[in-house]
Each structure stands twice: as C-alpha cells, then as structure tokens.
Amino acid sequence: MNREQRIELSKKSLKGISVGDAFGESFFGEADQILKYIQKREIPETSWEFTDDTVMAIAVFEQLEKYDTIQQDELARQFSINHKLDLNRGYGATARRILREIDEGKYWKEVSQNVFEGMGSMGNGASMRVSPIGAYYFDDLHKVKQLAIKSAEITHSNIEGITGAIAVSIATAIATRLKIEKVIINSYEFINQIIGFLPDSDTKSKIKKSNSIPYSYNIETVKSILGNGSKIMAQDTIPFAIWCASNNLGNFEESIWKAVSILGDRDTICAIVGGITIMSTEEVNIPKEWMKKVENFEESKFRNK
User: Does residue 15 register a pLDDT over 80?
Assistant: First the structure.
C-alpha cells in the first residue's frame, strides 16, 4: 500500500472521530430528556461542532501525513498551539495545565511526568486522539503500538493512560485490516487480539473482563462492570469503548448510538468508537447526513497544512 492510500485511511479514521465526537457532545443536558432522545434515536438540536478530542487527533494525523511517524517535540508544540487557538473546546483541567506549561517553554516530558504528584495522568485523553495511527499502520501492529506510546507520553505518562492509547490504536488497526482483507471475526476474537499487545494494567484487566459480557446485557449493568468514562480515566472509559466497537464492527451508526447510550463521557466514548468502527463498516452503514453536518476539520483553524 502506498503512502497516499495510508494517509486516506488515517483521514477516514479522523473523520470517524470527528463525527462521533460531535454526535456525543450533542447529548449533554438534562438526563431524562437526553434518555428520551436516545430511546427515540433523535439527535438534539446541535451545531455538530467537535471538541478537543478531534482537535488533538488532527495534530496526530498531521504527524503521519508529514513524517510517517510521531515527532514528539513537534506534536507537543502543535497540541499547545491548537489549545491556544480555541480554549473552549472542552479540555480537562489537567490537559489545560500541561498544554499551558508546554506553551510557556517547559519540556513536555517533565510536565507530563509531574502531574498528579509524579504519577502522571491516567486519563482517557491519549486514547481519544490515537485512531489515525492504527489506520495508517494497520498492517504493522508493533509499529502501531510504538507510535501510540509516543503520542500518549506527551500528556499521559501513567501506564493506564498509555495502555488505553495502545488499545484504541490496535483496535483501529485490526478494524482497518478486516475491511481491506474482507474478513469477519467475532467480538471475542477482536478483543483477544488487542489484549495481546497491552501491558499489565487495570485497563487491560477490564478490557479482558469485557469479553465475558454479552451484548444483550442491560446498559446499566454494563456500566457497573466497565464504567462509562464519568471518572475521565482510561480504565473507566476504554474497556466499554472497545467492547462497544467490537460488537458493532460492521455498523458505524449502531456503534455510535450504543456508545452514547451509556452516557458518562459521551463525546470521548463516541469519538473513540467512531474512529474504530468507521474503518470496518460498509459505507451504507455510515449516515451521509452525519458526515455532511459535522464541522469540517479540513477547513478548520486547527488544520496546519
């Protein structure tokens, strides 16, 4: 596969992130009303504007587009530049602090390692932006893991945050390969392939646990076992996102509706699921209306062409 084709695959994953991100962001509000929208499969009135999930994913994609790899110092700078371009894209407090300090000239590695009293961040932010790497290097899972770690370390030095990024990037790579090779596997096989690339961590343990949860389970039961991102941590977010994607590899639309139904950190969960499942879904199961309405990242101020 040539470089241009890889870039297009990576861009497609970024599109999936942006659609899922903007979709999920639309479902914040009064709980009872939001649940009614979900039950009726109606999208609340929305601008279809994406959040920091997509903003940061754009910078990751651009690294691949320019270099075929991750240049950590440059990616750190681009994260901080894009953050300053629009402070109102939903960044968490820790991300704001890290990006502000990078902008002030501090070395990203020291900043990343110093948060949470030297433990580093175990948040889900490294996972929400990483799918373009999996799509780009779908045929080299060891390369995917290596670059996922490099992209994560800039803001997430804790093993949980890093594990989440590896899991999402590997999941995207496998989903991409399945579509290209016209292969179908079940959710159990999909998750097992991911687990083999993960370091020992709580996130890995919960992803492994997800393989014993039937898709028919009530969503509240699933939430009690896997979490829904309300704690903003990788181990509270990624297990459900992987489980949701694994059960909807052929249906992007269904995967996004299932993702939002667990509520919690809904824009991030939908962004992660969207970045994965768009790669393995037949075009008929990708709503054209969603693709048209979402904010165009190609024309956005965050696109550093």
Answer: yes
Task: Count Cβ atoms below 10 Å from residue 126 Cβ, excluding itself.
Answer: 33
Average pLDDT, the chain: 97
Determine the Cα–Cα distance for residues 25 and 271; give it in Å rounded to an integer.
Answer: 10
Assign residue 29 a region: left if phi > 0, alpha if psi is -120 to 50, beta otherwise?
A: left
Task: State the sign of the Cα–Cα–Cα–Cα dihedral 244, 246, 247, 248.
Answer: positive
Query: What is the tens place of the pLDDT at every residue in 71-103?
Result: 999 999 999 999 999 999 999 999 999 999 999
- Torsion angle of C-alpha atoms 111, 112, 118, 122, degrees rounded to 10: 150
Measured between alpha carbons, how far is 187 from 208 in angstroms, rounded to an integer? 12
DSSP code at position 199: P
Under a CB-based contact definition with an 8 Å cutoff, are residues 64 and 7 in contact? yes
Quote the pTM value: 0.98
Name the residue with tokens 């999909």: 190
DSSP string, 123-148: BSTTTTT-HHHHHHTTT-HHHHHHHH
Alpha-carbon distance of 69 to 100, in angstroms, equals 25
Domains and CATH numbers, the chain: 3-299 (1.10.4080.10)
Q: Which two tokens stand for residue 255?
A: 């995967």
